[in-house]
Write a structure and sequence with these properties.
Elements lengths: L1 H9 L3 H14 L4 H22 L10 H13 L4 H20 L26 H10 L3 H13 L3 H5 L6 E2 L4 E4 L8 E4 L2 H14 L19 H15 L8 H13 L4 H8 L4 H4 L7 H9 L4 H8 L1
Antiparallel strand pairs: 1-2, 2-3
Helix pairs in contact: 2-3, 3-5, 4-5, 6-10, 7-9, 7-11
Length: 308
């Protein structure tokens, strides 16, 4: 009996180890948005374990069965397969930490199948639509945020977190520091964008002590929500009926590169993807392109033999 009590004491509570895991993510310089997403997903899983046990939650209660039950609960709540898979990824990352700390012998997520979902056709803007959108953005600073994202494919957080020192107009590059996954990358800028950004610095950016490249005089920064609000207003004025968010600019940038036959490895580097499979989602083709492709197939001899 004493032996059993000692074993229970050695098994750590779920919540303290979750906090340790989140602190580890901070040390690995993951973005605040990423850490917040992990915390939300893990707390939801914690609540499901609490409900099932009706008491304190211990690490050894994290099993493939408990994860499967959590997944079924989210399916009943009509959560999309993509969102559920993201939650599974968060749980799996946490379990890898528990294995590393020897709280668990194996990662129970290894036995859990990911959900298959319908792949949606990604929305993107044509070159004309991007120009119309930029033209209709009224707030001058946001206009240049949109211009930068359209010309470089930067994520919204990467754009609004740029520091003045990160934009080197002499070398024609933008340094993305601590991008998604805590990774840095260098993105070249075109001559046209270089002139536009110089104009922004000379004529548009307000006088402020903020180190942010994009900054208002009042706050010294720009919020993601404000950018999206201005984008939606601009889209409405431009008569663009597509669902417009800041991410559509990144997708439109990638789509233009694909249409210009840029190699996927180069697109991968520009977008900052660690895996080329992530980049491949941008390699879409529409029905017109597919029809044009099959019309180029011409087996004339086959047609002649069938005609005889």
């Amino acid at each position: 009996m004493v032996q059993q009590v000692e074993e229970m004491i050695e098994v750590p509570l779920y919540l303290p180890t979750m906090k340790e895991f989140l602190e580890r993510l901070k040390l690995k310089q993951r973005s605040q948005e990423t850490i917040r997403g992990y915390e939300i997903d893990l707390r939801q899983f914690l609540e499901s374990l609490k409900t099932a046990s009706n008491g304190p939650v211990f690490v050894d209660q994290i099993t493939s069965e408990s994860i499967e039950m959590f997944i079924q609960m989210k399916i009943k709540e009509s959560i999309s397969p993509t969102s559920i898979n993201r939650k599974i990824y968060a749980i799996s990352s946490y379990c890898n930490y528990l294995v590393l700390k020897r709280y668990l012998p194996l990662n129970p997520c290894n036995e859990v199948e990911r959900l298959k979902g319908k792949s949606k056709e990604r929305i993107f803007l044509s070159a004309d639509e991007v120009n119309q959108l930029i033209e209709k953005v009224e707030q001058s600073i946001i206009k240049y945020v949109v211009i930068l994202m359209s010309f470089t494919g930067l994520r919204i957080n990467e754009a609004i977190n740029l520091q003045i020192k990160d934009v080197d107009l002499e070398k024609s590059v933008v340094q993305v520091i601590n991008g998604k996954g805590g990774k840095n990358r260098t993105v070249p800028i075109s001559d046209e964008l270089k002139e536009l950004l110089q104009h922004y610095l000379d004529r548009v950016r307000p006088k402020t002590e903020s180190l942010n490249f994009f900054a208002t005089a009042k706050t010294g920064s720009i919020s993601q929500q404000y950018v999206n609000v201005q984008l939606k207003k601009a889209a409405k004025k431009a008569g663009i009926e597509k669902h417009i968010t800041s991410h559509i600019l990144r997708h439109s940038f990638a789509s233009r590169l694909v249409q210009n036959n840029v190699h996927v490895a180069i697109i991968q580097r520009l977008l900052g993807h660690s895996d080329v499979r992530t980049t491949s989602v941008y390699m879409h083709v529409d029905q017109t392109e597919m029809l044009d492709a099959v019309n180029h197939i011409n087996f004339s001899q086959v047609g002649e033999s069938n005609a005889r």
